[in-house]
Amino acid sequence: MIGKRAASQEQPEEPPSLHGDRGSIVAGNDVVNSVTQYVEAQQAFVLPADAYGPIPDEAVDRGVSNIPAAGEMFVGRAAELASLEEAFIASGEVLVQAVHGLGGVGKSALAAQWAAGRNETVRWWIVADTAPAVDAGVAALARALQPGLAGLPAEIQTERAIWWLADHPDQWLLVLDNVESPAHIRPLLDRVPGGRVLVTTRLASGWHRHAAVVRLGVLELADAVELFKGILGQHGPRDHTGADAVCAELGHLALAVEQAAAYCAETGVSPLVYLERLASWPATMYAATAEGGDSARTCARIWRLTLDRVDTTPLAGDLLRLLAWYAPDRIPRDLLAPLATPPEVDAAIGKLAAYNMLTDNHDGTLTVHRLVQALARTPDPDDPHRQADDVDRARDRATGLLAGAYPADPVAPANRPRYQQLLPHTDALTSHYSSEYDTLGTAYALDRAASYRQLQGASDLALPAFQRALATCERLLGPDHQNTLASRNNLAHAYQVAGDPNRAIPMYEATLASFERVLGPDHP
To answer: Hey, what CATH topology would domain 3-215 get?
Structure first.
């Protein structure tokens, strides 16, 4: 549905007079042809005569627009563009549509592409991340409509533009880009009884009283690859082998795909080499921009600004760093229960979801974009949200929570759904760091996951996990600790199940001898 507000029965207040309490106009009898002065606080501004009257109707005869070009590299989004077009068909009331999504997903590009094809006489783009920025953008519209207003104080320019918008409800479209809070744009919307307003925002919540909302997701794989190839081949044919793998690694996020393709285009590296660079130097690559690119428009920079706001809620930053170690999809929400009280966990999840840093699937699971995860677990000394000690603590806490969530018995039918739920996150966690950082929690999670997989006949997956678990127990507990011996016994059994008695039997014999030595020959 489209958010609508009935047209106000009251006209906006008339723009301030140029000869009221704030100052005075000094002119001769010939106002039309004179040069006027606006006097305020002992300062005089010399103005042309057209600044004195209202914005003339003919000001928009040729159209007024500052809509930025979406660029030749805009791809896909046909369904979203059609949805916006359908949403703005109605007339007579102010229509506000808010497109929200993760930073870098392409909200502004979508808005520019759509707005460029509209036929309103006035189409005006305003960067609306603060309330003063909204006022400044409206004042700029006034100057575009009537250049003679340039000498007036900005607040009067703003009033003139609002008066014009209210008086011409069927002639304009405003794009309010990067809105941080509905409160920043509400004063403007409350004073214009008609027109069209498209909002882009990272904020998912808080719009129910202000606008209809549309969530913008990542690009389809084919569109992401098309975008990558288009940027890579701007200056001639290039080998794009591996472009699909790069796009998949970047989670089809528009800004990340642009960033990677521009890097490859400028440096001459192939997509496959880019993947190697990304694996070896992730912090550097996430922040890299091509020559002439906007260093503020990188995933690392955009999400840092988002986390500056998210971090005002206790636990939110810690929670995101922790979730970064799991698989991106269907993370059990109850894993987080030991972290804090339920209201505190709820507040942290709600804050992250509000800024599209995660998605609450409303089925007891959470989803985090894989690139958000990759960035959150990559230390960067220049980013207060990615300090090495914080990242390490998050890894170890994620490991402990996962280990504690495994039921002890993998055989019991009642436990099978839980094991199936936790397996992808155990695989993801242990793939994100080398075994030298394994803890006893890692060893336990690996052992339980391997035991379940062995029961399912997946010995090829179980054996490496048993081996890694045993190596961790030997390193942290020593060769004769009971947990180490139990882990060794499980590995011997895995060899037996895999049909390798030459490894199983000697390991069984050595483990039994160690148990007899440590516990005595009569221990149960």
So the answer is: Rossmann fold (3.40.50)
